[in-house]
């Protein structure tokens, strides 16, 4: 059975980009993979600076995953900061990582291009911590959205650097990026759906917020009575992820026929999202009333993760001479 490893930051409410690009795949892969999924709270520290907010966001994202169907008996589900091994390996890897590798990383360039004032060193070295997150567990595959592809390539480069310097420890992980959900466009129709662009649809938001976000999807100015091309419409594209082939055809026919406005299409999308996520919303409410259970799941997950992480760190210490005999 192949091993997968992936994570999500506890930096805000998850959106359809996170769900379609990552969370949905993680949950589906539980049936035929050995899964490790973690909450990347150390990464979230680069943007979240309020301890109360941090604590609550960690629990919230855990609840989201469990509500969506993550099964802690099948998946090792844990919190990154519960394992100091992540930070320890990140430091060791940073000592073999060429500076130029990080200077080429898109995420850092994007964050500064978006106007982030005084980006931190942590944001710059983020790909090294991410390499440690991955390599500690020696996964075969890392299922992520397309935006993370470069970070996986950096992790592979860092693994090779380490192996070439000290001898083979890390197998090179492959990204797993299914085409159909690799890159979800935001409600602005321009950029990747992303918290920092504020162009998100938060599927667990209250109905009023969800409606506002769906209604804000940017469409072109084709008049209501004219035929429209569903393939060029962000509303239709999002609908297609959740609708059956028959439902997709029915909506596509309405677009092509004309006399049907984008506002009507948005209402259909909203109804579909509410219907699709209804059972998960219900489960979410149940989980919220038992925070003790959430904490236990994460604590037990950390115990299981530590067994694997400790084994890798023992090899790393042996190879680097950071152990006494
Ligand atoms: N728009 C997207 N399309 C496909 N996949 C996406 N992912 C995120 N946005 C899209 C995938 O979600 C997983 C979790 O990523 P994260 O925790 O690093 O979240 P993020 O990428 O930081 O989310 P944002 O909203 O994009 O945050 P900001 O704005 O802070 O950068 C990853 O597998 C990612 O590929």
Summarize it.
The chain is mainly alpha-helical and 325 residues long. The protein has 14 helices and 5 strands. The strands form 2 sheets. The chain has a 3-stranded parallel sheet with strand order 1-2-3. A two-stranded parallel sheet has the order 4-5.
Question: What does this molecule look like?
Answer:
By secondary structure, the chain is mostly helical. It has two domains: 3-183 and 290-320, 3-Layer(aba) Sandwich (Rossmann fold); 205-285, Tyrosyl-Transfer RNA Synthetase. Helix content is 55%, strand content 8%. The chain is globular and about 80 Å long. The site of adenosine-5'-tetraphosphate has 18 residues, from strand 1 and helix 1.
What keywords describe this structure?
325 residues; mainly alpha; Rossmann fold; Tyrosyl-Transfer RNA Synthetase; 2 domains; 3-stranded parallel β-sheet; two-stranded parallel ribbon; 14 helices; 5 strands; 55% helix; 8% strand; globular; binds adenosine-5'-tetraphosphate
């Amino acid at each position: 059975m192949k091993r997968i490893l992936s994570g999500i930051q506890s930096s805000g409410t998850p959106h359809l980009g996170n769900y379609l690009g990552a969370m949905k795949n993680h949950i589906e892969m539980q049936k035929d993979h050995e899964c490790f999924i973690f909450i990347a709270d150390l990464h979230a520290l680069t943007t979240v600076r309020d301890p109360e907010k941090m604590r609550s966001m960690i629990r919230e994202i855990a609840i989201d995953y469990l509500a969506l169907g993550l099964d802690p008996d099948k998946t090792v589900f844990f919190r990154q900061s519960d394992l100091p091994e992540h930070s320890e390996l990140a430091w060791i890897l940073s000592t073999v990582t060429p500076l130029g590798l990080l200077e080429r990383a898109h995420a850092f360039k994007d964050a500064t291009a978006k106007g982030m004032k005084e980006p931190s060193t942590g944001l710059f070295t983020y790909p090294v911590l991410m390499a440690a997150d991955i390599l500690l567990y020696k996964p075969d595959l890392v299922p992520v959205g397309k935006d993370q592809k470069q970070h996986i390539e950096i992790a592979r480069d860092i693994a090779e650097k380490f192996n070439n310097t000290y001898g083979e420890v890390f197998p090179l992980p492959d990204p797993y990026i299914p085409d159909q959900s690799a890159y979800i466009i935001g409600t602005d129709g321009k950029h990747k759906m992303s918290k920092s662009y504020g162009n998100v649809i938060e599927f667990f938001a209250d109905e009023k917020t969800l409606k506002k976000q769906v209604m804000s999807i940017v469409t072109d100015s084709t008049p209501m009575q004219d035929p429209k091309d569903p393939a060029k419409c962000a509303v239709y594209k999002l609908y297609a992820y959740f609708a059956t082939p028959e439902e997709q055809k029915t909506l596509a026919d309405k677009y092509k026929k004309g006399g049907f406005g984008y506002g009507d299409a948005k209402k259909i999308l909203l109804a579909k999202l509410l219907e699709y996520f209804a059972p998960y919303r219900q489960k979410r409410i149940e989980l919220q009333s038992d925070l003790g259970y959430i904490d236990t799941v994460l604590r037990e997950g950390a115990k299981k993760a530590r067994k694997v992480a400790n084994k890798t760190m023992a090899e790393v210490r042996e190879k680097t001479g950071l152990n006494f005999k």
